[in-house]
Amino acid sequence: MKNKLTIIAIFFAFTFVLISCSEKKEQFVYPLWEGAKWVDDYYIIGKLDEQTYAISEPTAEWYYNTSYLILGKEKALLFDTGFGKNIMSVVEKITNLPVITMYSHFHLDHIANIENQESVWLIDLPYLRERTTDNKLKLTTSETLLFSPPTVTVSKWIKPNEVIDLGDRKIQVLNLTGHTTESICLVDEKYKQLFTGDFFYDPRLDYVDLHEDTHANLLINSAEKLIAKYDDSYIFNGAHGFPRQSYATLKKYLNFLKSYKKIKHLTLKQV
Predict the structure, then answer these.
(1) Domain encompassing residue 222
(2) Could you tell me which of 160, 230, 240, 153 has the C-alpha nearest to residue 200?
(3) Are 255 and 22 in contact, with CB atoms under 8 Å apart?
(4) What is the pLDDT, as a whole number, of residue 58?
């Protein structure tokens, strides 16, 4: 009986943590953020500033994926290709610059059409390099969550912390482990923003992807690094839901992770 009461208490504590992590609860029914508009029956786009676009898939099941197009004077960087249709049809309406594609990580809802994508730059991690032959990297089921994972053609490897120059706009690439080993975050000092993939996104989705391969300790460590290095002058653009999340919400996310770790530890002790 005591064990049952403990488990019930843990359940309600975990529910409370999920609720408190969100700044404001809203029903997601294909909402648009300020300045966003439908460009067809699938995608919405919106300007975050004169050189940055968010491209969302509100109707893509429960994902509400949001990818980003970051423009420089010489090149553009597309961060993720989403879940469904070919996102390049939207990208080509925005810019005629040559486009680099990078991926926040390899889960299926971020890599649509990856096998046909040109100029793919990947984070340079030894285990990925070792599996690459003639610039071809066969992704795995565990990386993609797909039974038939695609093969990606790698155009260039980018070291962790390396800076990409798009032409009067420099983007730093961070390897933020925890969600997946290859997860990356992009830092744009010029416009004071970070692109955080599935590491941190819109909390109104009431969903934090803590799957069995997720390591809370690594997520906590990554969150603490970002909180220590950046401040409330930055915005945080995640890969699901609305962009422009706040530094204050990132701090709430860190508190959630710490509570999750504690609750998970207590649960395992009861098993």
Answers:
(1) 2-270
(2) 240
(3) no
(4) 87
